[in-house]
């Protein structure tokens, strides 16, 4: 039987792991704790930035993710091929979908709940990090992933600490479903540098990375989460429950 996992991150797209939890994954690994990552899509509906043919984007981003996973020192990695949906309000710039018939996305695959339930039974994580109810930016894949993870945890009957990405102050359009952070983690410089290097592996996401740096640079060196069911004072330490 596999040793129980200390921390499992579950997200829909390549790069979702590093923005919000990259430093946490690195530090957990450095402490000798068991970490894992489940990514549900290959992100094939994103931009190519001219780095590959549109039809090859999924495989290209999968390789970017594998390089990032190595830097993040993730101990257990699973990548699935569910369809990557488009955001409700795609940003201007390079067209998304590449002119192909774009599937609706993760939300159209409720069987993901049973898949996650199976993985929870095998991996037995002590804690999970995933998106909150608002999906951080209301991307349908983010919101659906939140919903599916919560259902899987409930069905599992396991006592799993459930952490959601929680920005300190969301933009007004993302207030609905926002949960305030009650765990704030400040990354030491050596961890931040590794996190930035992992972000750099997602070359097709360069515009997103630059936009994040421009608008939310203060969040690069800190990672903020909402622990479901926690009502105490804000924790400024590391994810305290699992520190050795």
From TrEMBL:
InterPro entries from the UniProt entry: GlcNAc_PI_deacetylase-related (IPR003737), LmbE-like_dom_sf (IPR024078)
Coiled coil region boundaries: none
The EC number(s) this enzyme carries: 3.5.1.-
GO function term, MF aspect, one: hydrolase activity, acting on carbon-nitrogen (but not peptide) bonds, in linear amides
Sorted UniProt keywords: Hydrolase
Major enzyme class: hydrolase
Name listed for the protein in its UniProt record: Putative N-acetyl-alpha-D-glucosaminyl L-malate deacetylase 2
Organism name: Meiothermus taiwanensis
UniProt lineage: Bacteria, Thermotogati, Deinococcota, Deinococci, Thermales
Gene: bshB2
